[in-house]
Design goal:
329 residues; mainly alpha; DNA polymerase, domain 1; hpI Integrase, Chain A; 15 helices
Length: 329
Amino acid sequence: MEQRIMEVLRRMQPVLEDEELRELKNVLHMVFAGCDVAQKTEVQCVDNSWRIDMEDYLISKALEGKSVDTVKRYRYELSRLLSYINKPVADITDGDISGYMRAYKSIREVQNSTLKGVRAVYSSFFVWLRDRDRIRKNPMVLVESIKVAKRVKRPFTDTEREQLLRSCATIRDKAMMEFLYSTAVRVSELASLNRDDIRWSSKDLIVYGKGGKERTVYLNERTNMYLQEYLQSRADNNPALFVGLKSPHNRLSKAGIEDMIRRAGERAGVEKAHPHRFRGTSITNAINRGMPLQEASIMAGHAKTETTMLYCNVDQESVKYHHKKYLSA
């Protein structure tokens, strides 16, 4: 019986987290307590032929300029899928993939938005295989698409941003919040910046976004003032733009930045305070205050303006004003 339970756990490992596996093990022991299993002699081979295809695909994505984190995520999702199905890639059907995705959603209780992202990884992989004649047909063509309700995330109001700023315990935190708003950078981009990246004479800097694409972002006067005050207050030699408050003053990580913003939100009574919301707020305010959509897209580092519009919450009063201005007659 113990061997059978371990076999179940092995098969479920690709779709369950460690805590869920432990819970499943306990349930199986309770359900099958006192039961005997008549074993049927059968040999099942584990197929690892897909690993070569997966590694070739991941190398291709890395050469295209995908970030290390993106390639790592692709590896994680594909390894779980392919080890669960346990077939050569040429033999995988749409039913295999659909069955795994249904189990993935049911067991892990993920949102459709998460599942849609996972499906996109699978689709990219099998398109790559088909384009290189490693499979005869792409099984993802017949895998059901996933509908996700499009929701524009609400930006910070001017009052909420001021409340967050007043709740900051240090000049570092003020400088960081203003920097996030002025530049609309991603939190991962912020964490990788150095002091020397700032071009003080022109009040701008170059950041490297997804796929290593570079863009120029700008510092407004308030950000410039807080940032200079913060850097002048530092006594460490770390080249990082933002560092921890305690010795040895290591570079502030993505998680550290997120934690700082979250705690500031709790102190200020501002819900859902996180770094990415500053990005959406910056893009929304820029467009509502007159910046052309194409320029806002460049500022955000988006390849398509449609992506920029997902971040933007257009002011209805602005729509009403321009309707009256252009369509009054």
